[in-house]
Structure formats: structure tokens, C-alpha cells
Design a protein that fits this description.
Blueprint (H helix, E strand, L loop, with lengths): L1 H9 L8 E2 L2 H9 L5 E3 L1 H9 L9 H14 L4 E4 L7 H14 L3 E3 L13
Parallel strand pairs: 1-2, 2-3, 3-4
Helix pairs in contact: 4-5
Length: 120
């Protein structure tokens, strides 16, 4: 699907990519006819592990969710890759996990990982 995403990005105008976070939300967005979908890290974190988006969910967990979504989606999925989940080696691993899951693209936040004080 990366080639389909590249074609969408070449078009004039905007492409609407609603946030989805699991297989059922992916099915719903597909049935609505969107051209691409966005795996929202905050939604996935809340849905899969019941925690807010405070860098608690792991790259492996998000890649597993992405794999399910890719398997049921008829359109490209762009995924939240948080901060890459660490340093350069972690970023490379995250990209490899997402490629293996079949994600068409991702974004990595330009901030450093910071633990949340008082979070247990």
C-alpha cells in the first residue's frame, strides 16, 4: 500500500485520513469510503491497554494493532510512531516493525521521551 499512499500524496488538495485505533474502527472508516486511514496512538493506547497516551504503549503493541488494521483495510494506513520509542536504534526497529506490519507510512514526533512523574 505504500505506492497507493504515494499516489494520494501526489494529488492536489487534501486527503482526509480519519483516526482509527483497532480492527472495528478500521472497518467503519473503510465503509465510509476514506482514501487512507491514520492509526492514532492515543486511541490505540486507550483501547488496547486502557492508558492515556503517555508513552506507555510499546512499539511491539502498536505494530501488532497496525498488523490487524492492515489486514482488514482496503486503503493505506499511516501510523503514529510516537518518538520512535527511543534512540536511533529504536527508531530503526520501529520502522522495521511497521514495515513488517504493512503500514504505508508513519510519523515520528520531534520530541524526546520523558517519563511522567507519578505514573505507576
Amino acid at each position: 500500500m505504500p505506492s497507493r499512499l504515494r499516489e494520494l500524496l501526489k494529488k492536489d488538495g487534501c486527503t482526509t485520513c480519519p483516526g482509527v485505533f483497532d480492527g472495528i474502527s478500521c472497518h467503519l472508516a473503510n465503509s465510509a469510503g476514506f482514501d487512507a486511514l491514520y492509526l492514532a496512538g492515543s486511541g490505540a493506547s486507550g483501547s488496547a491497554i486502557g492508558e492515556p497516551d503517555l508513552s506507555v504503549i510499546t512499539a511491539d503493541e502498536l505494530a501488532d494493532i497496525a498488523r490487524v488494521m492492515v489486514s482488514v483495510s482496503s486503503v493505506p494506513i499511516i501510523a503514529d510512531a510516537d518518538t520512535g520509542f527511543g534512540g536511533p536504534l529504536n527508531v530503526a526497529r520501529t520502522i522495521a516493525l511497521y514495515e513488517s506490519a504493512g503500514v504505508a507510512g508513519c510519523h515520528i514526533e520531534d520530541q524526546t521521551f520523558r517519563e511522567c512523574p507519578g505514573f505507576a
